[in-house]
Design goal:
167 residues, mainly beta, Pnp Oxidase, Chain A, 7-stranded antiparallel beta sheet, 12 strands
């Protein structure tokens, strides 16, 4: 083994599922942000956790309304993942810019893009400072899946996006 940096470690765990975090803007519309750092934290009761960069607009939105929809998009939304990760929703309507169709999510006003393999509606239960990020632990309110949708994954430490392939 050779010594590597933590920023290079995701290349060793590829593929990693890519997600969009959906939050509600003050005007009631949905903000989308590309999110790579997330995980299931508990199955009973259901909990997820994710980490947001301290400069993220989504972090500001979650400080006010502690509700989120985590969306695992289909491969058709690979371009949207890139679009949503390269600009701020504070200044840009990412949904319009990426030409996305949105769907209702039961139990919330927050919408999610179509198609998605998995949607998780959750409420922030606690946060923890993680230097350049803030970790959120969330209580799951609802989970929705579509086996027909092929999820998009980050490869080579998020240098590439694409479908998972069996070896």
């Amino acid at each position: 083994m050779k010594k590597i940096t933590i920023s290079n470690a995701p290349a060793y765990t590829s593929p990693n599922s890519m997600t969009l975090i959906c939050t509600e803007k003050p005007d009631g519309t949905t903000n989308l942000a590309t999110l790579a750092f997330w995980a299931f934290a508990s199955a009973n009761p259901g909990k997820i956790m994710f980490s947001l960069n301290k400069g993220a607009y989504s972090l500001e939105l979650l400080a006010g309304k502690k509700e989120v929809v985590l969306a695992v998009p289909g491969v058709e939304l690979t371009g949207a993942l890139i679009e949503c990760g390269t600009c701020s929703g504070r200044d840009t309507d990412k949904i319009a810019k990426a030409g996305l169709t949105m769907q209702e999510v039961e139990g919330t006003n927050i919408k999610a893009p179509v198609p998605c393999r998995l949607l998780i509606h959750a409420v922030v239960a606690g946060t923890m400072d993680a230097d350049d990020h803030v970790v959120h632990l969330c209580d799951v309110r609802g989970v929705y899946g579509d086996e027909e949708v092929e999820a998009v994954f980050g490869w080579k430490g998020y240098a590439e996006f694409g479908a998972a392939q069996k070896k």
